[in-house]
Design goal:
One of its GO terms (cellular component) is cytosol. 3'-5' exonuclease. This is 3'-5' exonuclease DinG. ATP binds at residues 287-294. One of its GO terms (biological process) is DNA replication proofreading. By secondary structure, the protein is α/β, with parallel strands linked by helices. Among the domains are: 9-213, 2-Layer Sandwich (Nucleotidyltransferase, domain 5), CATH 3.30.420.10; 477-662, no CATH class; 716-930, Rossmann fold. Helix content is 45%, strand content 15%. It contains 37 helices and 26 strands. The protein has a seven-stranded parallel beta sheet with strand order 10-11-9-12-18-8-19, sandwiched between helices. It has a seven-stranded parallel beta sheet with strand order 22-23-21-24-25-20-26, sandwiched between helices. The chain has a five-stranded mixed beta sheet with strand order 3-2-1-4-5, with helices on both faces. A hairpin with a 5-residue loop joins β14 (545-548) and β15. It starts with 8 loop residues before the first strand and ends with a helix. The relative contact order is 0.08.
Length: 933
């Protein structure tokens, strides 16, 4: 049989234009095309086209095409006949075909030519389906990830060639899929953009004619093809090895695997001494970057693990979990020759529910993003061994589909997918594992889970963040406006919609009796919601802080006693509300049950699913209201902070309630009681050379923890240069903002990955707007927190891009991992003191004030120091890293606390003038090599 598509001609097109809105005097400035025949690129075209208008600076920066490049070129009218001849009888292909195809047609029609009617297909959607686990589907990223030579990104001819090779790789990948998967993809594909479905159906139909038995590594359940799972879990571990007490023995073990470093061995010895001392319960270790802390604690604990006793490691981020599981643990096992098994532990919602996924395929026509996601998952299921949805590398898992396909955590007995159920298989592997890696929040919420085993050891990695992560895991809210919306939608489904229950079943007397009874109950519930909102709104004057946010919302912060004084009627109103909510939920459930029992519901499944969704939402709000009742009724009300978010400041009925725990000492103590020999480790634990602040913060005083400060295994002077610009205006002046723009715009010519650390999201927005079209930064992808998507998306883009700048605050100082991306420069625009306008900061500080404690010395300064050190730590993560840390805050020299910041910097700080900065940044590598040699 001839190769599929061998007889087809594909014209892979890429256009560069003056702008994306074709009607707004935007025109094509370059046409690039690669012709595929017999599944090979046989010819390419590139035409520069005069648009008879200026090319915007942003387009010049992106494409490298300037006005002088096109001023002598022919205009579109000249090229139109050539383009139609090239494209005649070809399948039109583009990366985002819904831009290139209509834009080209618009230009043709404007110049008196007929619009193209070619079959048109999109490589963005096809790439997502064929390669579902790639982190990005931008063309430049795809060509990099798939090793496609692509010399000039954003030049139409190069982009067209890169897209053509991408299309051929997509063909190859789709042809490798099992037939059942192709068949299901083909049945879904009609909803893809333009004629993209033709590629999938053509491949499916052609291969259906061949006999293709299912490969041995696959299993098929219904129409889903999966990797075969090994259901047999070997729980035996041969751990007869003994810890090598002598350093010479360690040296022999490290040989061929790891450089023998005295500082690392000293840390290992201290950890071993702690772990084997029955009188010790907790230890704090400050281990600077380059100490090899992760390998050290794994090595030390590994020899103590035996049947039914596990090591639990909690980290703050997914990236760190993956690094420990995929790199650090395998290296330790290679060195020690121990037979230990390690597994990740995360919520069941991270795993796909195969029953729910199959059901989603029969739920009617989904929207485009959901359809593509379903097709991605079908292909991913032929690849995954774990069913962990994180493998899809999405930047958000908030799509409605995930509500249906996330695993609820039940046993799935009796399901057709029972044997292949990913969550149950994961639990079985976790039961048999010796090392379990989880995150801070999961540990905080599931510390009593039996999965940890008997008397387990515990390591809290990045421990300086643990308390804040526990607090965050306890934060919650009661969104009255959203509940009101749920009730309004429910009434519409029951009473008013053309396809609603009352209209569809108007003849059913019993059902209408139930409906008539429920309606006033819903209205009464809405009335009670409004009553609670008014009570809260009337406490405005008791707030300790109020802020008008950029979106116009009014944010008010309260201590518990301020929002709920002793004479408050809120608790009484809340109890009535809880009962009424239960009443509405029960009566809605009765209607749903009645319909399933007494009516032919074959044509109404979508309506009933909608009603079920609303009942689930009512359950959710009921749970939150019970939590709130417990909080207000408890003796520890003053350990809680409350925030009113009023979306329309003059309207009491736009009031919503959030709460956060200010003191989690009791919760931390309970968590610690579940584990043995607890190790808290981080690169930044001390302030002013001692552990006092972090011991209090982690509620460890009663455990009398051991403390140890590790030494770096490399010379920081050879890896880190710290520059402080001394002739800058004050960091809170308007003049400073202008100077900052100038520094970022003019000094980064020889850098690739730059992290600009700030302390204010509004200032980030202003700086981004000021520099986004700077010609000197045209080769950089500029990413800004709050503007360029989620923080995870920003970190992902930064790691993938060849050159990128991040403007970030908050978690970018310490909470975001950048994978293996080497950062050249970190610029600290200001010393990282928290803004007291943030409600959680003001509430925490007010609590300290009430205890008659100095807020600056006991909270603001220690936190800023740890964050400052973490920001500097973004640069040097290992022995091969080098970089510059630039400080632009003159308070380093003008304030008494400046010396405290200078004291935590591990190398001598070089003061430079603003005019000297560019030279220092430009020739850093040259100076470094000269010094090292």
């Amino acid at each position: 049989m001839a190769q599929i598509f061998a007889q087809d001609t594909f014209a892979v097109v890429d256009l560069e234009t003056t702008g994306t809105q074709r009607e707004n005097d935007n025109h094509i400035i370059q046409f690039g095309c690669a012709i595929i025949k017999n599944r090979k690129v046989v010819k390419t075209y590139s035409f520069m086209i005069n648009p008879h208008r200026e090319i915007p600076l942003s387009v010049q920066n992106l494409t490298g095409i300037h006005d002088e490049d096109v001023k002598n070129a022919k205009d579109f009218d000249y090229f139109a006949p050539k383009l139609t001849a090239i494209l005649k009888d070809a399948v039109f292909v583009a990366h985002n075909v819904d831009f290139d195809f209509p834009f080209l047609n618009y230009e043709l029609v404007q110049h008196g030519y007929e619009a193209l009617t070619n079959r048109a297909i999109d490589t963005v959607e096809l790439a997502k389906i064929a390669f579902p686990t790639l982190p990005s589907y931008k063309l430049s990223d795809l060509t990099s990830q798939l090793a496609i030579k692509h010399l000039n990104p954003h030049k139409a001819d190069s982009d067209a060639y890169g897209t053509a090779i991408l299309l051929l790789k997509i063909f190859e990948r789709l042809e490798q899929l099992p037939q059942a998967t192709l068949n299901t993809l083909s049945s879904l594909a009609q909803g893809l953009v333009r004629d993209t479905s033709w590629v999938i159906t053509t491949i499916a139909n052609n291969l259906r004619q061949k006999k293709r038995p299912l490969a041995k590594n696959y299993m098929q359940v219904r129409n889903i093809v999966l990797q075969k799972q090994n259901n047999q879990v070997d729980s035996s571990s041969d751990n007869n090895h003994h810890f090598p007490e002598e350093d010479e023995a360690k040296k022999q073990l490290f040989k061929r695997h790891l450089n023998y470093r005295k500082a690392q061995v000293a840390l290992i010895n201290h950890l071993h001494q702690f772990i084997t001392d029955p009188n010790q319960r907790a230890m704090l270790v400050e281990a600077p970057n380059g100490t090899g802390k992760t390998l050290s604690y794994l090595f030390s604990y590994a020899y103590q693990l035996y049947s039914s006793r596990k090591l639990v490691i909690a980290t703050p981020t997914k990236v760190l979990q993956e690094q420990i599981l995929q790199h650090e643990i395998p290296q330790v096992l290679k060195i020690t020759q121990l037979d230990l098994k390690a597994e990740v532990v995360k919520s069941s919602s991270h795993y796909i529910d195969l029953d729910g996924f199959v059901q989603s395929l029969f739920n009617g026509t989904p929207n485009k993003p959901t359809l593509v996601l379903q097709m991605q998952i079908l292909v991913w299921l032929t690849e995954t061994k774990t069913g962990d949805l994180d493998e899809l590398q999405l930047t958000s898992y908030k799509a409605p589909l995930f509500v249906q396909i996330s695993h609820p955590g039940d046993a799935r007995v009796g399901s057709k997918f029972a044997e292949a159920d990913f969550w149950n298989l994961a639990r079985a592997r976790q039961e048999a594992a010796d090392i379990l890696v989880t995150n801070h929040a999961y540990l905080a919420n599931h510390y009593m889970d039996t999965i940890w085993g008997q008397n387990p050891y515990l390591v809290i990695d990045e421990a300086h963040r643990f308390t804040d992560n526990v607090i965050t895991s306890r934060n919650d809210s009661l969104q009255f406006e959203a509940l009101w919306g749920t009730l309004s939608h429910l009434r519409n489904l029951l009473y008013y919609a053309d396809d609603g229950v009352q209209v569809q079943f108007s003849e059913n007397v019993d059902l209408n009796f139930l409906l008539k009874k429920l309606n006033p109950e819903i209205l009464e519930l809405i009335n009670q919601i409004n009553n609670l909102q008014k009570i809260l709104y009337n406490q405005r004057q008791n707030s300790i802080n109020q802020t008008i946010l950029a979106n116009g919302n009014l944010e008010l912060s309260f201590q518990g006693k301020g929002l709920f004084p002793k004479n408050s009627s809120f608790l009484e109103g809340l109890n009535k509300f809880v009962k009424q909510l239960e009443q509405v939920r029960d009566e809605t459930n009765q209607i749903l049950f009645y319909l399933y029992q007494n009516e032919d519901i074959s044509g109404f499944q979508e309506l009933l699913n909608e009603i079920t969704d609303q009942i689930d939402r009512l359950d959710y709000y009921s749970e939150k209201s019970y939590q709130l009742t417990d909080l207000i009724s408890s003796d520890s009300l003053d350990q809680e902070g409350f925030i009113l978010m009023i979306t329309s400041p003059e309207d009491p009925l736009s009031t919503n309630l959030h709460w956060l725990m200010l003191d989690v000492s009791d919760e931390l103590t309970q968590i610690y009681s579940r584990f043995d020999h607890l190790l808290f480790v981080s690169a930044t634990m001390t302030t002013n050379g001692n552990f006092k602040y972090i011991i209090n913060r982690l509620a460890l005083t009663d455990l009398h923890p051991e403390t140890y400060i590790g030494k770096s295994t490399f010379n920081f002077k050879k890896h880190l240069e710290v520059l402080a610009v001394k002739d800058l205006p004050g960091p809170n002046s308007e003049e400073y903002d202008q100077v900052l723009q100038k520094i970022i715009s003019q000094n980064l010519e020889h850098k690739d990955h730059v992290l600009v650390l700030m302390t204010n999201l509004e200032k980030i927005r202003e700086l981004f707007t000021a520099i986004i079209n700077e010609p000197a930064l045209k080769d950089f992808e500029i990413l800004a927190q709050g503007l360029s998507g989620s923080n995870n998306r920003i970190a992902k883009r930064f790691s993938i891009a060849k050159r990128a700048i991040i403007l970030g605050a908050d978690s970018f100082w310490e909470g975001i991992d950048f994978h293996n991306c080497k950062i050249n420069v970190v610029i600290a625009t200001k010393l990282p003191f928290e803004s007291p306008d943030q409600p959680e900061v003001r509430l925490r500080q007010k609590s300290l004030e009430d205890q008659k404690l100095n807020v600056f010395q006991n909270d603001s300064l220690p936190r800023a120091l740890i964050r400052f050190r973490q920001g500097m730590g973004r640069l040097i993560r290992g022995e091969k890293d080098h970089g510059q840390f630039v400080i632009l805050d003159s308070r380093l020299w003008t304030k008494d606390y400046g010396k405290v910041f200078l004291d935590v910097i591990p190398v001598k700080v070089e003061q430079v003038k603003q005019k000297e900065l560019k030279r220092k940044l430009d020739n850093y590598d040259q100076r470094r090599h000269k010094t090292n040699h």
